[in-house]
């Protein structure tokens, strides 16, 4: 009685080729899924600056929701379309750019900024009252997250009075002493430059929902509920800088 023929085992080269193909397929699928998640659900950013201390500290990684509404009092990431930061050369190596693009590494904030939304379209924002607070639509706001190395509790070290135009926002950093935010871009070579004060809503990537790294800094990024609860008003069609510091 003859023995049944044994099935030929794949050669070593074929087995290695199959393993490599499986790894490539897995990496491609992971890249596609990561890119979809980053584009439509959540993306991560690395924050190198001090402007949002102590809510977000230098070196923190933050998670940004891509499908949540922007509300007053939330911390947001937005493109620096207004040129608030001086242009910096992109020194990232190619491998890091690729890793950031597919979501394996958090995106650098080159070309992006992180601030807190204080005013939405139509809001009238003023500062400061006798207690050093800013007001939105006539409501004085308590800001428990404010930080100052000088120990100041004032919302700003100078007064301002603005009305936010349609399609734009007014933003401030939580570390007011170190934040080049909407308060610091009033002027140009031609004098008052209101177009530089208000980032566009279209530039907003989304609200920051959490600090995700390092582990010791993990926290949800809270919305200032008092700011969020202030009734909205009709959006002003034009930029409305009512008064600015005497710097122009």
What does this structure look like?
The protein has 248 residues and is α+β, with helices and mostly antiparallel strands. It has one domain: Umud Fragment, subunit A, CATH 2.10.109.10. The chain is 17% helix and 25% strand. Strands 1, 2, 3, 4, 5, 10, 13 and 14 form an eight-stranded mixed beta sheet that branches. A five-stranded antiparallel beta sheet has the order 8-7-6-9-15, with no helix packed on it. It has a two-stranded antiparallel sheet with strand order 11-12.
Write down how many β-strands occur, each being a DSSP E stretch of 2 or more residues.
15
Can you tell me the residue ranges where pLDDT is under 50 for at least 5 consecutive residues?
none
Top-tier CATH class = Mainly Beta
Question: What share of residues are in beta strands?
Answer: 15-25%
Structure described in brief:
By secondary structure, this protein is an alpha+beta fold.
Write the layout of secondary structure elements.
Blueprint: H1 12-40, E1 42-46, E2 61-65, E3 75-79, H2 94-102, E4 107-108, E5 112-119, E6 124-127, E7 134-136, E8 139-140, E9 160-163, E10 170-172, E11 187-188, E12 191-192, E13 204-213, E14 219-220, H3 225-229, E15 240-243
Parallel strand pairs: 1-4
Antiparallel strand pairs: 1-2, 2-13, 3-5, 3-13, 5-10, 6-7, 6-9, 7-8, 9-15, 11-12, 13-14
């Amino acid at each position: 009685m003859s023995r049944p023929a044994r099935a030929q085992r794949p050669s070593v080269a074929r087995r290695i080729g199959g393993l490599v193909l499986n790894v490539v397929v897995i990496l491609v699928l992971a890249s596609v899924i990561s890119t979809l998640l980053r584009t439509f659900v959540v993306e991560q950013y690395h924050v190198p600056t001090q402007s949002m201390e102590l809510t977000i500290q230098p070196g923190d990684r933050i998670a940004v929701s891509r499908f949540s509404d922007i509300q007053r009092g939330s911390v947001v990431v937005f493109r620096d379309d207004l040129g608030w930061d001086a242009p910096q050369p992109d020194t990232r190596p190619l491998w890091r750019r690729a890793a950031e693009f597919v979501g394996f590494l958090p995106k650098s904030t080159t070309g992006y900024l992180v601030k807190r939304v204080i005013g939405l379209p139509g809001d009238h924002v003023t500062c400061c009252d006798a207690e050093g607070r800013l007001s939105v639509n006539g409501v004085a706001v308590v800001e428990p997250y404010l930080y100052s190395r000088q120990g100041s509790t004032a919302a700003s070290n100078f007064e301002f009075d603005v009305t936010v135009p349609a399609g734009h926002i007014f933003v401030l950093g939580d570390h007011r002493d170190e934040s080049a935010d909407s308060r610091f871009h009033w002027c140009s070579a031609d004098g008052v430059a209101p177009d530089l004060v208000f980032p566009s809503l279209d530039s907003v990537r989304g609200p920051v929902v959490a600090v995700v790294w390092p582990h010791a800094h993990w926290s949800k990024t809270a919305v200032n509920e008092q700011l969020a609860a202030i009734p909205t008003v009709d959006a002003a069609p034009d930029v409305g800088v009512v008064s600015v510091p005497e710097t122009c």
